[in-house]
Amino acid sequence: MDAFTAGILQRIRNTESDLIRARESGDDFLADVEQAELEDLRRLAAEYGVEVGVTSA
Fold first, then answer.
1. How many Cβ atoms sit within 10 Å of the Cβ of residue 25?
2. pLDDT per position as a tens digit, 23-42
3. How confident is the model at residue 57 (pLDDT cuts 50, 70, 90)?
4. Which of 2, 11, 22, 49 has CB 3.0 to 4.6 Å from 30, enough for a Cys bridge?
5. Distances in Å between the alpha carbon of 49 and those of 2, 15, 24?
């Protein structure tokens, strides 16, 4: 796995965790921000052919 792939996958995992915490704390604004970030990261990964597993976030 190259550095780009490892980095994007780590950022996705971190953002998924942040999204879960935002939802659990009831912070709707932060949850929206994290959701948008997650969508951007997944889109970027797809553009570069990085396989991203399906998660609950």
1. 10
2. 999 999 999 999 999 999 99
3. low
4. 22
5. 12, 19, 32
- The residue whose two tokens read 């998924």 is 16
Q: Are 12 and 50 in contact (CB under 8 A)?
A: no
Q: Rounded to the nearest 5°, which phi and psi values hold at 16?
A: -60, -45
Q: Please give the model's pTM, rounded to 2 decimal places.
A: 0.88
Q: How far apart are CA 51 and CA 53, in angstroms?
A: 7
Task: Using alpha carbons, list the distances in angstroms from residue 3 to 21, 39, 41, 50, 55.
Answer: 27, 21, 15, 12, 22
Q: Is the dihedral of CA 6, 9, 14, 15 positive or negative?
A: positive
CA distance 21 to 43: 22
